Amino acid sequence: MRFIRDWRHAVSVLLVGLPLAAGLTPTGAAAAEVNVYTTREPGLIKPLFEAFTKQTGIEVRATFVQQGLAERVAAEGRNSPADLLTEADYGSLINLAERGLIQKIDSPILNTAVPAALRDPDGGWYALSMRARAIWVSKDRVSDQTLTYEGLADPRWKGRVCTRAGQHPYNIGLISRMMVKTGAEATGKWLAGVRANLGRKPGGGDRDVARDILAGICDIGIGNSYYVGLMRSGKGGKNQESWGNAIRVILPTFADDKGSHVDVSGAAVARFAPNKDNAVKLLEFMVGDEAQKIYAEIDYEYPVKEGAKIDPLIAALGKLKIDPEPLTAVAARRKEASQLVDKIGYDN
Ligand SMILES: [Fe+2]
User: Fold this and answer.
1) pLDDT tens for residues 21-38?
2) Are residues 102 and 200 in the same domain?
3) Is residue 106 located within the same domain as residue 50?
4) Which domain holds residue 280?
5) What is the distance in A from the centroid of ligand 1 to the CA of 344?
6) What's the 23 CA to ligand 1 centre distance in angstroms?
7) How far apart are CA 342 and CA 67, in angstroms?
8) How far is the CA of 45 from the centre of ligand 1 (A)?
9) 7 vs 11, 66, 249, 291, CA distance in Å?
10) Is residue 186 part of a domain?
11) pLDDT, tens only, 230-249
12) Residue 348 lies in a domain
């Protein structure tokens, strides 16, 4: 497959082996291909595309679009070469749908593999993997075994909480779900309570929360489950490994005890996909046992497909119970959640 790395049209091309020389089949016909625009890091998603090419002979041309994927596809319009669009969070997937940039597909394979709460009810986007928004605590200074998201506002945590920016989509997702479950007023009080507990200005990434717990700046924070695998595996270096080992991970629930907030990565077929059939094939491949296993192994996420293998570092975090509110209901509160973050000055 080929991987094209693209930051705002500054392009460098990485050739990762061409299974069909010069783009031609042995009979001289044009090779089957599928063009993917992805916001995911190329190194993480590449093995999956290579497995697809090996199985089907369809060449994957993947373009890494770190920012503004929707804007780019919208600007390209009918001339866009994109067939499949992958995004790293459900907010971006829903944005694609709302802007009319994807098309509905009807695939029994996808509808069987992906739980209804984790896909577009209209058949647009499909979750491919998921991650829990977990609570990380200091291994040494916190002994709680279970915690709720609501509990982050408890005054006992005053000066002890670290998070990335409230406006980051990961936190907007959590705040939106809190709105669905408890209403706007209760969510406002809760978020103000969390803000009052902050040990530092919100910012950085999730892994910086673990770094700051190790440094004693905070005792508790919020972070996505896959970062725990990335840190503890040592893939990000010795420093990150020590951050990962300084924390204990709690898979929290809301006060109703139904489950954790999960976000998803996912994909959709582009509205003007020149190779629609191949895009559907790739999407179906991505919810198959092989691809779901690759996701679990390389990206430390939870597979969406029931029964697919989970990486041991993530399985060790405990059994994930998923809050049952559909992602579409959560997404409907995003704007309100963002306004709330500004209103209480969470990031100031
Ligand atoms: Fe992330």
Assistant:
1) 444 444 445 679 999 998
2) no
3) yes
4) 2-130+263-312
5) 25
6) 34
7) 23
8) 14
9) 7, 6, 34, 27
10) yes
11) 999 999 999 999 999 999 99
12) no
